[in-house]
Amino acid sequence: QVQLVESGGGLVQAGGSLRLSCAASGSIFSSSYMGWYRQAPGKQRELVAYIYSDGRTNYAESVKGRFTISRDNAKNTVYLQMNSLKPEDTAVYYCNLFYGSIEYDYWGQGTQVTVSS
């Protein structure tokens, strides 16, 4: 069983920065896909960024050039550096670990990010 614990959310002014962290338990982290998703009130959950075990990354168009996803396999942790934040980035951010099949699909509890204008 894998547990994911997010941290780093909070309230920030537009133009500011935050760094989210997601620490994973268990032994499959280094071989897993890790993703950050977000869900704003009244909207569906959407992909923000992901990183494969080999370090390849991809981003939603809305965050390209502003957000950076990274991972530290020695610490079983994935990060999301968020710069130039906008009010529309306000959402609950969730960490996801996926390892090959739906049986190994885990989610964190979410961390609130609020960007004030």
SSE diagram, text form:
Layout: E1 4-7, E2 10-13, E3 18-24, E4 33-39, E5 46-51, E6 57-59, E7 67-72, E8 77-82, E9 91-99, E10 101-107, E11 111-116
Parallel strand pairs: 2-11
Antiparallel strand pairs: 1-3, 3-8, 4-5, 4-9, 5-6, 7-8, 9-10, 9-11
What structural class do helix, strand and pairing data support? Answer: mainly beta
The backbone outline, from C-alpha atoms, is globular
Mean pLDDT: 96
Oligomer: single chain
Q: Could you tell me how far the N terminus lies from the C terminus, measured between alpha carbons in angstroms? A: 40 Å
* Main sheet makeup: 7 strands, mixed
Uncertain ranges: none
Task: Describe this structure in a few short sentences.
With 117 residues, this protein is mostly beta strands.
Task: Please tell me about this protein's structure.
The protein is mainly β. It is built from no helices and eleven strands. Strands 2, 4, 5, 6, 9, 10 and 11 form a seven-stranded mixed beta sheet that branches. Strand 5 and strand 6 form a beta hairpin. The chain is globular. The termini are far apart. The model has no long low-confidence stretch (mean pLDDT 96).
List keywords for this structure.
single chain; 117 residues; 7-stranded mixed sheet; 4-stranded antiparallel sheet; 56% strand; globular
